């Protein structure tokens, strides 16, 4: 009698470069894929609305890919420990494999489950798949985590190069019939009343096949202009790979080696490739920071920032920011792009975040939560990490006194008004809800409390 292998898919919704899946195939027994919607385990953060939309379509794509190769994807809902153990018992599994997670609650869940299953005689292994370098391998000379990106990335680049990605399997042995599981539609991940996802459907096609196609398109046609035009929101020079990496439709190893191969040589193309690969490094830095500071989404990384005197919240200001009705063209354009597409250009993310925290003096955690709910690429590390960077409370933080002037940012990066004209054409002549100069001064005065707390 066979003892099937379970591959527990998490934020790695792909077949290519999936070490856990490869291990299951190599074991030689039938393989069953599992994805669970865990909204019950302690500390697990519920997904935002845009993320749930993406998840639905990416899971549908993954299920089709597994079925086409002879296996099945079982969907179940509940707390991780109960669901995995239940499927092990249902099919008499002899092994469970997964790729590692790096958030605090997730690591605790995985460790407890691994120990428990092993004590019951089930083979359990976890694998490095979703970061280029394991978080405990990149350390300062004194053995502590890095707090600044450049020395972090230099140290990482001095380690052995990221491994080559594993090929996409052609066949996956499966059971004759799929174990019982939920119907994806019953999870109600898609919005219905109202259906606000029309813009997401226009912009995105989730799934591994589409992700690999986008990677190839970017490298073949857009990489050469990346360094020169990446900060211009209307230029279309960015990779648009962030949701693909967030959901693991592409592994960072796949992206890394494709970028290295395409960007070889000298000149502008090589410069752009180096810049692009450093953005993968920034993603690494965010995940490493989360590993060492699991409360990144709720607590200031810089403890001195706890003294920052956030004023009482003005709900009208927060709502105006969320809806893109601040009267500041670059800010409003970004927030409307976000609502319509589930995405925002990175330069504009910095501008909108700076405006919220430093002109409206609204706590970065409220902005982080809004992005968590509306971005298709919001993950447990980068979203909070980047908000803290802009706010001045995080690792390698933009100094608090560096306040993005949204008008100058528009003049520099959208000089023809193409981006603003697309997303906020009604913004010309509107009065901003706050005075930019006066609120900048107020933010600098408030920051004095942080300086005194050091």
Report what the structure shows.
Its cofactor is FAD. Keywords: Chromophore, FAD, Flavoprotein, Lyase. Belongs to the DNA photolyase family. This is Deoxyribodipyrimidine photo-lyase. It is an enzyme of class 4 (lyase). It contains 19 helices and 5 strands. α3 packs parallel to α4 and α7 runs parallel beside α10 (252-262). It has a 5-stranded parallel β-sheet with strand order 3-2-1-4-5, with helices on both faces. Helix content is 49%, strand content 6%. It is an alpha/beta fold and 454 residues long. The protein has helices spanning 19-27, 49-68, 80-91, 104-119, 149-157, 198-203, 208-222, 226-229, 242-246, 252-262, 268-292, 315-323, 329-341, 346-359, 364-374, 382-391, 406-413, 418-423, 436-453, and strands spanning 5-9, 31-37, 72-77, 95-99, 123-127. It is globular, with a radius of gyration of 23 Å. The chain has 3 domains: 5-129, 3-Layer(aba) Sandwich (Rossmann fold); 131-162 and 208-292, Serine Threonine Protein Phosphatase 5, Tetratricopeptide repeat; 303-453, DNA Cyclobutane Dipyrimidine Photolyase, subunit A, domain 3.
What's this, in brief?
This protein is α/β, with parallel strands linked by helices and 454 residues long. It is built from 19 helices and 5 strands.
């Amino acid at each position: 009698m066979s003892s099937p292998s379970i591959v527990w898919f998490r934020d790695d919704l792909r077949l290519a470069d999936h070490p856990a899946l490869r291990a299951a195939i190599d074991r030689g027994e039938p393989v069953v894929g599992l994805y669970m919607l865990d909204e019950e385990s302690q500390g697990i953060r519920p997904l935002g609305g845009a993320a749930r939309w993406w998840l639905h379509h990416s899971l549908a794509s993954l299920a089709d890919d597994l079925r086409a190769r002879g296996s099945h994807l079982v969907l179940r809902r509940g707390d991780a420990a109960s669901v995995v153990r239940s499927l092990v018992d249902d099919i008499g599994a002899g092994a469970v494999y997964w790729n590692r997670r790096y958030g605090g609650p997730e690591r605790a869940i995985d460790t407890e489950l691994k120990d428990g299953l092993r004590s019951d005689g089930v083979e359990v292994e976890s694998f490095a798949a979703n970061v280029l370098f394991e978080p405990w391998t990149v350390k300062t000379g004194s053995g502590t985590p890095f707090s600044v990106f450049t020395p972090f990335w230099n140290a990482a680049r001095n380690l052995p190069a990221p491994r080559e990605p594993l090929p996409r399997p052609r066949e996956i042995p499966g059971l004759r019939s799929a174990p019982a599981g939920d119907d994806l539609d019953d999870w109600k991940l898609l919005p219905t009343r109202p259906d606000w996802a029309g813009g997401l459907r226009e912009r995105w096609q989730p799934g591994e096949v589409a992700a690999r196609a986008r990677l190839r398109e970017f490298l073949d046609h857009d990489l050469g202009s990346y360094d020169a035009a990446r900060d211009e929101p209307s230029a279309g020079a960015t990779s648009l790979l962030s949701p693909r990496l967030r959901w693991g439709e592409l592994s960072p190893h796949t992206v890394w080696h494709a970028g290295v191969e395409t960007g070889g040589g000298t000149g502008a193309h090589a410069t752009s490739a180096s810049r692009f690969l450093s953005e993968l490094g920034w993603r690494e830095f965010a995940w490493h920071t989360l590993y060492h500071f699991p409360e990144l989404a709720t607590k200031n990384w810089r403890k001195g920032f706890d003294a920052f005197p956030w004023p009482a919240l003005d709900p009208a200001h927060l709502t105006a920011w969320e809806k893109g009705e601040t009267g500041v063209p670059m800010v409003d354009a970004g927030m409307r792009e976000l609502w319509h597409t589930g995405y925002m250009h990175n330069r504009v993310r910095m501008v909108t975040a700076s405006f919220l925290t430093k002109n409206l003096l609204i706590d970065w955690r409220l902005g982080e939560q809004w992005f968590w709910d509306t971005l298709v690429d919001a993950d447990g590390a980068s979203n909070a990490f980047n908000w803290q960077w802009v706010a001045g409370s995080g690792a390698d933080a933009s100094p608090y006194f560096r306040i993005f002037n949204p008008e100058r940012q528009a003049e520099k990066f959208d000089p023809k008004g193409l981006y603003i004209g697309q997303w906020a054409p009604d913004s010309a002549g509107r009065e901003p809800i706050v005075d930019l100069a006066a609120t900048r001064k107020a933010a600098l005065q408030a920051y004095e409390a942080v300086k005194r707390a050091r």
